[in-house]
Amino acid sequence: MILSDTRVAVRLDSSHHNLTLHYTEKAFYILHDLRKAGGPRHTRTHDILHHNLLRVAFDSTTRSLTVSYLKPKKKNKPHASLVVLTGVVQGNVSNEVVSTWAEGVMKSLYEDHGVLRCRRLLVFVNPHGGVGKGEKIFEKVVEPVLLAAGCDLTVVRTTHHGHAFDYVKDLELDKVDAIATVSGDGLIHEVLNGLAQHADPMSALRIPVAPIPAGSGNGLALNLIGIKHGFDSASAALNIVKGRPMKTDLFSITQGGKRSFSFMSQSLGLMADLDLDTEHLRWMGDTRFIYGMLRGIVTFNPAPIQLSIKVAEDNKDVMAETLFTRVQEKLSSGKEAAEESSVRESGALPTLKYLPDDNEDWTVIEDPILFVYAGQGPYVGRDYMAFPVSLPDDGMIDIATSRGEIVSAISGAETGENFWFPKLQYYKAQAYRVKPLSTKGNLSIDGERFPFEEFQVEVHPRLGTFLSCYGRYVADFSPRTAKK
Ligand SMILES: Nc1ncnc2c1ncn2[C@@H]1O[C@H](COP(=O)(O)OP(=O)(O)OP(=O)(O)O)[C@@H](O)[C@H]1O
Fold this sequence. Notes:
Layout: E1 7-12, E2 18-23, E3 28-33, E4 43-48, E5 53-59, E6 64-71, E7 81-89, H1 95-109, E8 120-125, H2 134-148, E9 152-157, H3 163-169, E10 178-183, H4 185-196, H5 201-204, E11 209-213, H6 219-225, H7 233-242, E12 244-255, E13 258-262, E14 265-269, H8 270-276, H9 287-299, E15 305-313, H10 316-333, E16 363-365, E17 371-375, E18 379-381, E19 384-385, E20 397-402, H11 406-410, E21 424-436, E22 443-445, E23 448-450, E24 455-468, H12 480-483
Parallel strand pairs: 8-9, 8-10, 10-11
Antiparallel strand pairs: 1-2, 1-7, 2-3, 3-4, 5-6, 6-7, 12-13, 12-24, 14-17, 14-22, 15-16, 15-21, 17-20, 18-19, 20-21, 21-24, 22-23
Helix pairs in contact: 2-7, 3-4, 8-9
The chain binds adenosine-5'-triphosphate (ATP).
Adenosine-5'-triphosphate binds near residues 126, 127, 130 and 186.
Pfam families: DAGK_cat (PF00781)
Protein name: DAGKc domain-containing protein
GO molecular function: lipid kinase activity; phosphotransferase activity, alcohol group as acceptor
């Protein structure tokens, strides 16, 4: 069947007016026939981008057709809105034709793009994340979108720290297609660490994870969905429905003989102080980070640490050009993310390559350092693009440090422009280690507090999996040459 040859007329249950539905390669069109009995013909057409169309379902016993889609977020609204239209198919078009058409539309929305339709989702809701709105966001916005898309939900409300970790550690892997968290970045950290502790960690870490922003940081949501829609929970739900698995580097953190995993950032000095010492200001949402930053500038305490880095690149122009080339390649290839694969690689976690006493080709920085911020994903918060040249799977961790003049380094933080500030040292590295030179200080890993003790970080290329509609981090950042 050529889908665009078929037009399906439906009488809506709710308003008794007729609709004509038409699917083409460009969009899904809904023509509303608003004619009043005996009055002049009055029609209105609107088009829905394929990306926003969730489901077309036909029930041949009742001849009922349901179309669900997201209406993009308006400027004054917090999120995109869900529309579900249901009505009875009109005319003498056969059930078989409508069924084949609806199935064809679904196949072109999902399987043709390498996306599983009607995913089986494990959803963790942290009722206490961020400003405590997790439950409301889930019930009012997220659950209706996921159900309208035909997803099968297992919902777990977390009751304590470690709940999600324990749950996924023993997960039956073939029962779940993706894991969603209605939370901040802290719960994502917990889920990834639970998957890494699974009896079959490599298979477990292939299950894609995706965030619904309901915490105070929400860095991952910003990076996967972009700054414009990163705080829109309906768009984040759409990413869970339509996103494709995107392989992402993860970082091993070895501290005191214990190994854990980080997916986003590690911070020491000013950046950790502003994250951890502002916990009591949680009610402020992400404004608390700005408050912490300003307070840090005033107090100006260098971090008492020695930093050693296994440097792979320290030329900022090369980093920006590499990013630019990779993004252009993704955009021009048309295929922006990997296909969903049913093949799972089993096996043990990758072994550590760098021993704590390995010093060959490590650069040691002993000068006073105001902060160390290491990680991946451009945004660490709405107001701070800390790693503008970060790539999800380049096998590198980005490290930014500064020895002073933090005020200049902060200006342009939202757009990543501070990256070019000469006093901000920026490296791409395979590994790094930190030795505290005092007992007092803060270490924050993915926004969670860790002991201020010696630790080493090593990159594991493509160990983690997130869901993404774009196959890359969504942030605008260009090399200097592109700006001229
Ligand atoms: N019911 C609960 N009570 C207390 N803590 C919980 C509960 N559920 C989850 N947690 C813990 O809360 C921590 C933070 O969770 P989450 O990431 O959702 O929010 P957040 O800290 O506000 O966000 P961010 O990490 O962006 O600052 C996690 O370590 C998680 O284990």
